[in-house]
Amino acid sequence: MNVVTLKDLERRFGDFVAVKGVSLEVAKGEIFGFLGPNGAGKSTTIRMLCGLLEPSGGSGTVAGFDIRTQREAIKQNIGYMSQKFSLYEDLTVEENIDFYSGIYRIPGAKKAERKAWVLEMAHLQAQRRTRTGQLPGGWKQRLSLGCALLHEPPVLFLDEPTSGVDPMSRRDFWDLIHQLAGGGVTVFVTTHYMEEAEYCDRLGLIYRGELVALGTPTEMKEHRMTEQVLSLSCDRAHDALTVVAALPGVRDAVLFGRDIHLMTADAERIVPILRDAMEQAGFEVRALERITPSLEDVFVSLIEGKDREEGAQREFKG
Question: How many Å apart are CA 155 and CA 30, to the nearest integer?
């Protein structure tokens, strides 16, 4: 059963097309990751899905409601959480929960039960009377998630929800997300952390308003990568990057931690050329091997490919 469906979704702002013909489906209980660089159209798409922005073209449904004609019903049947948490810092933990219970019009007989659930889920029973502004970032994050789920929505939209929190809090947060999905909640999440993309069941990559790739993390790495990837470990990697990127046959080269990942159509041919170039430039090659591409490698390759394609089209038209 699909909880989110989009067909040729489009949004224009004057002559600028922010979202161009996006089509996708998200099933019940699925964790769907929506990725893309800043300005790619992620937030505009989410605003349309949440009933906050009317589409300029196309169609879609969220939780069974039409994104054009039933926007108010959508707002009542989704949870939404952003990186800003949307909490009132001068209120206590308990007062924030009470406030959102009123916003979502939770029946009086059920308020106590839902409050207890949020406090337990967020592990905040002992902090229930603590002013929210005094909580660490990871605790605010859990409280914000709990408030977004008070009314038990079937769909949860998370917009960069772990930005600014420490790695341990991010991992704990994703454990909660998987528990929710296991209970049937559909999660639609945007993130710029590539390791978090691995936690998603499926991914969509949007770039310049267009959906350029769709699939599981494994499918992305095994089938959407047209280039081969080499990992180069050497001294002074930042300086070596200039040498590597300039070699014929190297389509792209990026720093990846302390190493360099480079993309090429023929790894076997480029290896001896690369070793010679590094030696002549005075760099020590510690390791050089072909590797399975990371999601970051895949996304860089897809975006670079899209840019090359559009550049070729402009030259042809010119």
Answer: 10
